[in-house]
Structure formats: C-alpha cells, structure tokens
Amino acid sequence: KKTPQKLLKVSYISKPIKPDSIRPKKVKLTQDPLFSLVVANLFKDSRGFGGKKVIVIDPGHGGKDPGAIANGLKEKNVALKLAKLLKGYLESDGRFKVYLTRSRDRYISLYNRTVFALKKKADLFISIHCNADPKGKNHGTYIYTLSTRGARLKLTRLVAERENRVVLREVHFTRNWYVNRIIAELAINTTMTEGLNFAYVLKNKLKYITDFKGIDSANFAVLKTPGIPSVLIETAYITNKHDARLLKNPVFLQNFAASIYMAIVDYFYSYKNYVYRKK
Predict the structure, then answer these.
(1) Helix, strand, coil percentages, rounded to 5, for the chain
(2) How many other C-beta atoms can be found within 10 angstroms of the C-beta atom of residue 270?
(3) d(CA 224, CA 148)
C-alpha cells in the first residue's frame, strides 16, 4: 500500500489531492510569549467577521507590470490564477474572510498592497509570485520571509517618516516617540517570527506536491506589514521548461493552492502561538 507521500509524488500532475489528506510530521515547539500580547493590543478588532481569520492574498505584479515572461507564460497571470484557487478553498471552509489585493489584471504599487493588508486587519498575508532565471536552469519552489535588515528598515520608517501616516494610523501608534518605538519593535518581531513559523508549516505541505528548495529571508517591500505574519511564495521557475509545464497544468495549480490552504488551517488551528526550534 502506497504512503500518502509517495502517492502524491507520483500523481500530483494528473490527480487532484484532497485538502487535509496529509498531515505534517510532529515538530518540537515552544510558546512565543510576545505574539498574543502584540495581536491583542495592536489589532483588537482583527478578529471580526464572526471570529473568522482574515487572509489577504497578494497576486504579484499585474497591469503594466507583467512580471517574468517565458515559455508562453506571464507571471502576473499565473499568480492571479493561483490566488483565486486559494481564495476558493478558504471561502468554502467558512472559517476565513479572504481578500485579494487585485482580482483582475491591474497594477497596484507595493506600498498600497501593504496598506491594503493593514486596512483589512489581516491575520496572514501571502504574496504569490513565479521565480525566474536568465539561463533557465534553476527550478523548484521557495518561500521568503522578512529579513532582519528589512525589519530594521521598516522599523525606522514606521517611527520616523511622516509619509507613512496611513500605516501609523492603522497600527494604532501613539504620539509618544519612545512608546511608538517599543510598539514597532513588537510588531516587527511578530512579523518576522510568525512569518517564519507559517513558512515552516507551509513547507510541510508543499514538499509533497512540488520540488521544494528552501525557506529564505529577503528585504521584499510587501513583507513589511507590521504585526501581520507574511510570506512570499515563489511557486516555480517560469523560465524553466519543466516548471513552466507544471505552471500551465491546472491540476498542479489546484494542488498547490490546496496545499497552501491546508497549511493555513494547520497554522491557525494546530500551531498558533508557537515557534519552531532550530535543531
């Protein structure tokens, strides 16, 4: 009898998987004492909609910005297809309120994507992209979380820059600069810690249906959402012929979306408020 892992490895192109058909291996966890405190104080009304979790999905690029183009594909189109599939899974669950930063082919600035997530008081922010390599040799899936450098830059802007009044208002900062800095540090710490936590939960799902390469950190603008766990998913290399065939396959996209959905469910209802320990 085949194991779920082997079955999915063989059939992910031709046979859709069923959400929650696989479970990640048990991991050693420790409680994060800051997470609940930050969320409770900064986003008191983020658990609206009858207790539903608010998920903001960000299909990368759009409109005048097509993203990477190769092998008959445009990154903006692939990202939007996958985002809509994921939205469908989440909304059919009933425990989530879902928003897309764009639901059609239109351009939205990186800054406005971040502000959108803050205004919707998101519990989780997921940005979807496709990777690219000029030589077309690289392949596989990567997940990115906010880097330490990116967090520090964001902290400086949150506290000091006047043009970010919209962001400051949504995060409920005070007029006291010192208090603001403490709040900003807690919010950014939550963004980094919880973003990494979700990335590991997501890895445990995606590795069954795609060639998962790793989790890394980067200074992406859309990941700088204070207090909101955020990840950027590079689904596959649009410039690689094998990966491009997968991205053209509707069943692969369906399985990819289902895996993200299962990770979201596990993150909120099995792993919440915990941190992965490094071995």
Answers:
(1) 50, 20, 35
(2) 11
(3) 11
Cβ neighbours for 32, distance < 8 A, ≥ 6 positions apart: 193, 194, 197, 273, 274, 275
Report the run of H or E that residue 121 belongs to, with start and end: none
DSSP string, 20-76: TSS-PPP--EEE-TTHHHHHHHH-TTTTHHHHPEEEEEEE--BTTB---EETTEEHH
DSSP strand pairing (141-146 vs 230-237): antiparallel
- Return the number of other C-beta atoms located less than 10 Å from residue 60's C-beta: 27
Q: Give the tens place of pLDDT for each residue, 99-149.
A: 999 999 999 998 889 889 988 999 999 999 999 998 999 999 999 887 766
Q: Residue 225's closest CA among 129, 100, 122?
A: 122
pLDDT top residue among 155 and 233: 233
pLDDT digits (tens, 9 = 90+) for 189-225: 667 888 889 999 999 999 999 999 999 887 777 777 7
